[in-house]
């Protein structure tokens, strides 16, 4: 009983500390769907540059979007920084975002921000097929993700069906080619007996170690592995499918300012800072993501984004995940 009470007391203390850290006061309150390791260095740069202090609450993007929806105009958040555009789209569709200031919105290509400028992308990631060149010669690389249902790929594909980026990719396929073809593709992939993993980085490691031949992931996981173990020990390579193929989806991490925020000026300063050259260089060189600001170079070895790369969709529409989840369950991938 004493042990249980101590655990309860500790839990309450941690909760109180968490709430105190997000209570706002004179600080700007950020709800972040990006991990602390990715966000904290940028926030420290922003605080040094502007003197504006930020309290961050971290969690999964979808869960934070749902919380903002539930809180409505009572939300503690001044700014929402989401891991993917779908979570931003969900909040924007509820009318909870104020327009992003024109200087920030105008700095980003239209395809990487909301049509109403309710949110704006600050860094990008491309879907790729990471592969083991020892087992998949370049001449055999699939031109499209639709080619992966061929019998030759049976038992050779790595997937992370529970991962949000995979689900966003399937949602993009739904938006692009419709339910019939998407269901057929999912059923074909299931029939090819894919190996499933909990995350993208585990897929890339498995490919590099020869445990699986190729996998559907985001581009930067290969670069992170190279940074960790060295290029000379990194065998795996990235393959980009062509043009508007759903497998070439470019999704973004992005930000929106809550309409209910009483700190609109400081919130705008944070959004604008994330699109300055120092912040964009950090995304590119430290996180190996695509910068959204023109003129900022990508990490060495990362090909620049092409104007027509990925399916032509409103990224905010990736919020419609329920249909995707239903299909993944019905086809046995979840």
What is the CATH topology of the largest domain?
Answer: D-Maltodextrin-Binding Protein, domain 2
Distance from N terminus to C terminus (CA atoms, Å) equals 39 Å
Shape: globular
Look at the structure and name the CATH superfamily of the largest domain: Periplasmic binding protein-like II
Describe the structure concisely for a colleague.
The chain is of the alpha/beta class and 334 residues long. The chain has eleven helices and eleven strands. Helix 3 packs parallel to helix 4 and helix 6 runs parallel beside helix 11.
Topology:
Blueprint: H1 2-21, E1 28-32, H2 36-50, E2 54-58, H3 61-71, E3 79-82, H4 85-93, E4 97-98, H5 102-105, E5 120-131, E6 157-159, H6 164-191, E7 195-196, H7 200-208, E8 214-218, H8 220-229, E9 237-239, E10 250-258, H9 264-274, H10 277-285, E11 290-291, H11 322-330
Parallel strand pairs: 1-2, 1-3, 6-7, 6-8
Antiparallel strand pairs: 3-10, 4-10, 5-8, 5-9, 5-10, 5-11
Helix pairs in contact: 3-4, 6-11
What keywords describe this structure?
334 residues, alpha/beta, D-Maltodextrin-Binding Protein, domain 2, eleven-stranded mixed sheet, 11 helices, globular
